[in-house]
Amino acid sequence: MANLEHLAIVKSGKAEIDAWRTANKRTWLDLKGADLSDVDLSGANLSHAALHAVNFTGANLSDASLMHTDAPRAAFIGADLSGLDIDGANLARAEFDSCDARGAMLNLANLSRTMIRYSNFSGAVFKDADLTLATIKSTQFVRADLTGARLQE
Fold first, then answer.
1. Of all residues in the chain, what percent are helix, strand and coil, respectively (each to 5)?
2. Given CA atoms 69, 57, 141, 138 in this order, what sign does their dihedral have?
3. pTM over 0.70
4. Contact 129, 149 (CB under 8 A)
5. Angle of CA points 49, 65, 125, to nearest 5°
């Protein structure tokens, strides 16, 4: 269950998140199980956060940072993930469906057992990412960088 104070801060948007981050540099945001559908989080710093099973359906996460988050089973359905930085994040068993993730950074991300469908990851960078046992269907990877990515076990 999400920390209700953290949830209110995040739903208030980037300025509130930045202010909270400045005052709480060493504290992880606890948003486990939160519903952040249709929330505008563009440019927000959500790095080092607990995002287990968070619902990001329709959310705008363009140019945001989810670096080093723990987000297994998160749902990114119809979300704008363009320019999102997810380097080093744990996204095992997450769902990416109908997402715009052009130019996203997914270096060293754990994407094992994810479901990736009908999305656009063109120009995204997956260097050394773990995509083992991921299900990928009807998704674009034009000019994506998969250097060192693990695609099968």
1. 10, 25, 65
2. positive
3. yes
4. yes
5. 120
- 3-state secondary structure string, 22-43? HHCCCCCEECCCCECCCCECCC
How far lies 59's CA from each of 36, 42, 150, in Å? 7, 9, 28
Q: How many helices (H) and strands (E) does the chain have?
A: 2, 6
What percent of the chain clears pLDDT 90, i.e. is strictly above it?
Answer: 97
Q: Which residue matches tokens 């540099």? A: 25
Give SS3 for 128: coil
- pLDDT surpassing 70 at residue 72: yes
Per DSSP, 64 falls in state -
Q: Which of 51, 65, 60 is nearest to 104 (CA)?
A: 65
d(CA 30, CA 119): 28
Helix (H, G, I), strand (E, B) or coil at 123: coil
d(CA 63, CA 39): 14
**Which residue's entry shows tokens 């060192």?**
148
